[in-house]
Design a protein that fits this description.
The protein has 535 residues and is mostly helical. It has 22 helices and no strands. The chain is globular and about 65 Å long.
């Protein structure tokens, strides 16, 4: 698609020559998209590199849910929430549909702007204001990656015990966790192309062994006991939906990261449908399997080691390969998370290439994982507490960002690439002192109120005993309040479109000279016409 120099596409994509830094401008058009190790960072992807396909999102969101933690959460719905089979099915379906529906909807902004969600958020909160929600989202990623790393390490330890009789010990925990985080760092550092390949193959293998596990459960579980369980209360059902949805909500700011290589012609409804279908394909069966297995073994929901029960619940020939696939799945989940965390780190000012920026998260998840495995008293309690706080922190961002997306839908320039990269006063998204006070106000008030509704092992908000708090709807109230406040406050006024980023800045004097030359060139035809008329 031909684009005039200096003019942005309607979706906000800059001309091919203007959206990448100088170091990339001389690179052949196919170099970045075809490279094995992705070098592109937070800068918007130019049009000629937009060769992604919507179908690539399907294995991405399948892989994002290949987690044995979903079995534990499904068991928790039965053991702690008192839900029956049909309620667990309903909770998983609604939670997955709502949370990953939001992932799909907000992923469309990645196609509009060709940049990661953490970068596009600058247009919403301002180039300085974005540091505040960005920091909270970054910290939340630390926790999510720690949980995933611990789960993967537990799976490796279980395989070693089943195959070789090697019991867990502190040195083995350290080595196992170090290897897991190291592999995660390697895969995430390779970038988009390697992640897509791994996600595709893991989808096939995990699907095969999940079918085998389902077949085993169908033939061995006492289904009369499963279906004879009484239904739980409505409050517990709503709270269960919130618990399952929290995991999907944590992926919402990540959605644009995987859609930024899609061409402008990619249909939004296909992005939405592919995202939701990929997630539900794994999430619903996994949660339901956990609920069914807990009827026979309630310890599934209470164990400090969230995967050790699989060695006892399944025969050896099935447990070992299933756990191996689960380890691969946890590596991919953490790799996807660290991949996006690298963008967040760069947006927060970490002066490292994306592949190395993820090392910050890798180190923190390693330290946090050791504390959780060697010090924490209850893995499940820590996990649920983390999910509760995670959902609120992400929901405040979602509410504001979603309204901002709706406002940009009909704009000629949805996202200005040069403005996103420019963090100075000349940025289109400078607003007032670098802050969009409307977005910051809505986000801050909603976040505080959401925490007030929240209760967990680590924190109890003053409004936790209200209907919203007792039903675990603090995350929903947070998103709705953030959206409402941002919608009713005066609409932010952006600055003028920034100059194309085709070369390093030469200073204010050079900028003024360039601007004067452009004005002179534009005025020349008019002067010639006036002279001809006089003649």
């Amino acid at each position: 698609m031909a684009v005039s120099p200096g003019v942005s596409h309607a979706d906000g994509a800059a001309p091919a020559h203007s959206s990448a830094p100088t170091s990339d401008s001389a690179t052949p058009a196919t170099a970045v998209i075809d490279e094995t190790v992705e070098s592109r960072g937070i800068e918007p992807v130019p049009d000629h590199e937009r060769r992604g396909r919507v179908r690539e999102l399907f294995p991405t969101w399948v892989a994002a849910n290949i987690s044995v933690l979903l079995l534990t959460m499904g068991a928790g719905l039965v053991v702690f929430n008192g839900l029956n089979f049909w309620q667990v099915l309903l909770a998983a379906s609604v939670a997955g549909g709502v949370s990953f529906g939001l992932v799909g909807l907000l992923s469309v902004s990645g196609k509009w702007g060709g940049a990661p969600g953490a970068m596009l958020s600058r247009a919403t909160f301002g180039v300085r204001g974005n540091y505040f929600p960005g920091m909270i989202l970054w910290v939340a990623r630390f926790g999510w990656e720690t949980i995933n790393a611990v789960t993967g390490a537990y799976a490796v330890l279980t395989v070693l015990r089943l195959l070789f009789g090697i019991e867990s010990s502190t040195p083995l925990v350290v080595v196992t966790l170090l290897l897991f985080v190291g592999v995660t760092f390697l895969v995430s550092g390779m970038g988009r192309k390697v992640l897509n390949l791994c996600n595709t193959w893991s989808t096939y293998f995990f699907g095969l062994f999940t079918v085998l596990v389902l077949g085993y459960l169908v033939t061995t579980i006492d289904w009369a006991e499963v279906f004879s369980r009484p239904a739980g209360g409505t409050a517990m059902l709503i709270a269960g939906i919130g618990t399952i949805a929290a995991g999907g909500i944590s992926w919402i700011p990540t959605g644009p990261d995987f859609a930024r290589y899609l061409p402008h012609s990619a249909e939004g409804r296909k992005i939405f449908g592919t995202t939701v279908s990929g997630a539900l394909l794994v999430l619903v069966p996994m949660v339901l399997m956990g609920g069914v297995m807990s009827v026979k073994d309630p310890a599934l929901a209470k164990t400090d080691d969230p995967v050790s029960f699989l060695g006892e619940a399944l025969p050896l020939w099935l447990a070992v390969p299933y756990l191996v696939i689960a380890v691969i799945g946890m590596v991919l989940i953490n790799s996807l998370s660290m991949y996006s965390a690298g963008f967040t780190a760069q947006t927060m000012g970490v002066k490292l290439p994306r592949a190395w920026a993820v090392s910050v998260n890798a180190v923190i998840s390693l330290v946090g994982g050791l504390l959780l495995m060697l010090v924490a008293k209850s893995f499940y309690g820590s996990f649920i507490s983390f999910l509760s706080l995670l959902a609120v922190s992400f929901s405040a961002w979602v509410g504001v960002y979603g309204v901002d997306m709706l406002r940009r839908r009909d704009r000629a320039v949805r996202y200005d690439p040069a403005g996103l990269l420019d963090t100075s006063r000349t940025s289109r998204y400078w607003y007032v002192g670098g802050y969009c006070w409307q977005a910051m106000t809505a986000w801050g008030i909603a976040l505080l109120l959401g925490l007030a509704f929240t209760t967990c092992d680590w924190f109890t908000g003053p409004l936790h005993s209200t209907w919203i708090g007792e039903n675990g709807l603090g995350w929903a109230a947070t998103a709705l309040l953030a959206a409402l406040l941002f919608a009713v406050l005066p609409a932010p006024r952006e600055g003028e479109a920034s100059a194309p980023v085709s070369a390093p800045r030469q200073g204010d004097a050079q900028d003024e000279q360039d601007a004067q030359e452009a004005r002179d060139a534009q005025a020349a035809p008019d002067e010639q016409a006036a002279g001809a008329q006089r003649g």
